[in-house]
Specification:
It is built from seven helices and seven strands. The chain has helices at residues 9-35, 48-112, 117-149, 161-175, 196-212, 261-264, 272-282, and strands at residues 157-160, 183-186, 191-194, 220-226, 232-238, 286-290, 298-304. The strands form two sheets. A five-stranded mixed sheet has the order 2-4-5-7-6, covered by helices on one side. Strands 1-3 form a two-stranded antiparallel ribbon. It is elongated, with a radius of gyration of 28 Å. The chain starts with 8 loop residues before the first helix and ends with a strand.
């Protein structure tokens, strides 16, 4: 059974209460110093000694409040990270369980009773699809580990971008059983010097996301725009679920997934866009996301040097 996620609210409430109590105590302390409320003193402090004591009191109060605030922020971030990691584990477990269950079912069926040649062909195709799905998941996790460790060293060589993207599109159309030209490719042939493997990782993840988060018929476009500097701009747009504006800056964070019910039913580990960002950075490029809002599609614009 899945453990219940910890809530961010309690530490924030406790921390805010402590900050308020500290602030009240600090104010009372300074009032006492100014008005000489201490009963054991016959004469109040005067001049610079009193100012120094008051200043020291304020500094101590501010130091305590700063520490408490930093503690609250750190604790909230840690709880959020734990929630994201739990969601990641749940997602990976589901991603592993589904194809393994399918493989086991088909193998048991083949063992228990004779099957026709047509059934064998159908079973083998399904099993190959499941194995391919497992292979992609493992590659995904390993790629995330390599990106986080900074072990990717780009091996740059001339690459004809349009031809490479066309090959990626053909593979994805076959994998997702899409008709030809479902993913439109627009723009001229451009050659840049980059790492072909890393480029495949980036474009495959962006297009997989565009397909996965589409609503209704898949409508994805890839537009190539040569840059004056010799590089290239690649815009991947879709007509899918879109991205809330408040989440645009967070979607490239590890484990982050857009938090609405429509997108949560999609398969995924929350690593894809994090891998994209780290890989693009290794290629000395940049990537930005834009979206008019939920259910209005999104555009990811990738810029790579020549």
């Amino acid at each position: 059974m899945r453990a219940k996620n910890a809530s961010v609210a309690p530490p924030i409430i406790y921390g805010v209460a402590l900050v308020l109590v500290t602030l009240i105590l600090t104010v009372l302390y300074n009032i006492a110093m100014v008005t000489d409320w201490f009963p054991d003193r016959s004469t109040p402090a005067r001049g610079w000694p009193q100012i120094l004591v008051i200043g020291a009191g304020w500094m101590m109060g501010l130091a305590v409040m700063t520490g408490l605030i930093l503690f609250i922020i750190s604790l909230a971030r840690q709880i959020k990270l734990n929630q994201q990691q739990q969601n990641f584990i749940d997602s990976v477990t589901h991603e592993l369980k589904s194809p393994l269950t399918s493989l086991k079912l088909h193998l048991e069926t083949m063992q228990r009773r004779p099957i026709t040649h047509e059934q064998l062909f159908e079973f083998s195709n399904t099993m190959l699809h499941d194995v391919d799905r497992l292979d992609r998941l493992i590659d995904h996790v390993l790629e995330a580990a390599r990106s986080e460790a900074g072990r990717r060293i780009p091996m740059k060589a001339p690459l004809e971008v349009r031809a490479q993207i066309a090959a990626i599109i053909k593979t994805l159309e076959r994998r997702h059983h899409l008709t030809h030209n479902t993913i439109r490719l627009e723009g001229p042939a451009v050659t840049i010097k980059t790492d072909a493997t890393a480029f495949d990782v980036v474009l495959t993840n962006l297009l997989e996301n565009a397909i996965k988060y589409s609503q209704g018929p898949v409508e994805v476009a890839v537009r190539l725009t040569p840059l004056v500097s010799g590089g290239i701009s690649i815009a991947v747009s879709d007509q899918g679920v879109g991205i809330p504006k408040k989440q645009l800056r967070r979607i490239f964070k590890r484990f982050h997934r857009v938090g609405n019910e429509l997108t949560r039913i999609r398969q995924g580990t929350g690593l894809g866009l994090s891998i994209v960002k780290d890989t693009v950075k290794a290629l000395n490029g940049s990537i930005v996301a834009s979206s008019p809002g939920e259910n209005q599609g999104s555009v990811f614009t990738l810029t790579l040097p020549g």
